[in-house]
Amino acid sequence: MKFTLVRIDDRLIHGQVALGWTRSKGIECILAVDDETSKDSFRVSLLKMATPTGVKSFIIDQDTAIEKINSGSFDNKRTMLLVKSTKTLLDLINKGISIDEVNVGNLRNDAGNKLLNYVYVNDEEIADFKEMRNQNVSFFAQSLPDQQITDFNSIIDKI
């Protein structure tokens, strides 16, 4: 399956995703994958409320996501894959989910190194990015569709 957009954003569904990305890409379905969040019914409810009208959202764990993706549940829909962390994205890739390009949104690790104004990563996250780069995943950083694109590959390659 080819996703319309794959994004890492530690906030998952919020204004930039709900209004900016879904509209600009014609997203019909948001697949938000995070094991911890999927178990918290209150957070799931909040994320569902943040989902724009006319867009379906699924806030699910990794195993369920892999099962749904592999079953073809999203094949005929313009789908955004949204993950909260590099670890989740790398796990999905290592479990056979095909991902070519990723939009890097907010990552705010308090103990992390500042790579961009909205991207702070620790050593483990840097290692995840590098491993994904070694698997031919390409990255770009862009908060909103109308903002400048930053080649995130060059940032990763210099670290």
From TrEMBL:
Localization recorded for this chain is:
Cytoplasm
The principal location of this protein is cytoplasm
Write down the InterPro entries for this protein, in alphabetical order.
PTS_IIB_sorbose-sp, PTS_IIB_sorbose-sp_sf
Entries under Gene3D superfamilies matching the protein: Phosphotransferase system, sorbose subfamily IIB component
Q: Which residues form the PTS EIIB type-4 domain?
A: 1-159
Q: Which SUPFAM superfamilies match?
A: PTS IIb component
Q: Which UniProt keywords apply?
A: Cytoplasm, Kinase, Phosphotransferase system, Sugar transport, Transferase, Transport
List the Pfam families: PTSIIB_sorb
Tell me what this protein is called. Mannose/fructose/N-acetylgalactosamine-specific phosphotransferase system component IIB
